[in-house]
Specification:
Aminopeptidase; binds coenzyme A; 4 helices; 6 strands
Length: 188
């Protein structure tokens, strides 16, 4: 049986809770600042879609100062982290892991991943996969600290719905993101 994600305190400075629609602008700003928004993705569409599939696995971290009991991003709250996860019945996936620059190195990225792992495990998920651009050695080092290892696999993708500013010019065919250099990097 699964339980809804609860407010979980991290090292004491933050709390992790499910995304609320009122967090949208702060979350998109966080992703942009963290370099996670790519031309072939529309972050607003990504959020909209996620809210239709396992929205409870889309988490944000906010500064604990925003006060207990607030359901979403309210007055005084600041979103300082995010992670978007899913379970397809075989593997768990993680996208859009981000921590605001000033908060990095405080354990928040680890805490967000720990919460996602807990929720996926609760659903019986046996393995978690994620994609990182191969040149992004810093993020690979971060994941290795958390116990992740390189799989002997390459990442392939096929875009089914063109998004982003190129969408309108993608006449009739899918704009295959995997054709773009470095696009194997997801938003992990
Ligand atoms: C990746 C990211 C989420 C890490 O968040 P963070 O809060 O700084 O990470 P933490 O403080 O929780 O670090 C957890 C562990 O990883 C280690 N670590 C973090 N960044 C590291 C780096 N660049 N190189 C090596 N180790 C690193 C920490 O030392 C810590 O180790 P410890 O707990 O064993 O002492 C953050 O840097 C970020 O938002 N980056 C930009 C967005 C991004 O690239 N996301 C991933 C897309 S695939």
């Amino acid at each position: 049986m699964t339980t809804a994600p609860t407010e979980r305190a991290t090292a004491g400075s933050f709390r992790i809770r499910p995304f609320a629609v009122s967090d949208t602008e702060e979350v998109v700003a966080l992703w942009r600042a963290a370099g996670l928004v790519k031309p072939w993705n529309d972050p607003y569409l990504d959020i909209e879609r996620k809210l239709t599939v396992q929205p409870e696995l889309f988490l944000v971290a906010e500064a604990a100062a925003s006060g207990p009991g607030s359901a979403g991003s309210g007055a005084g709250s600041t979103v300082v982290g995010s992670v978007m996860a899913g379970y397809d019945g075989h593997r768990g996936w993680v996208n859009y892991l981000a921590v605001a620059d000033p908060e990095r190195g405080t354990g928040l990225g680890r805490a967000l991943m720990a919460e996602v792992e807990r929720l996926l495990l609760e659903r019986g998920c046996p393995k978690l996969n994620l994609q990182v651009r191969s040149a992004n050695t810093a993020v690979i080092a971060f994941y290795e600290r958390l116990g992740y290892r390189l799989d002997d696999a390459v990442s392939l993708g096929k875009r089914l719905i063109p998004d982003g500013p190129d969408a309108s010019s993608a006449s009739g065919g899918a704009a295959d993101a995997s054709a773009a250099p470095g696009s194997a990097a997801a938003r992990g």
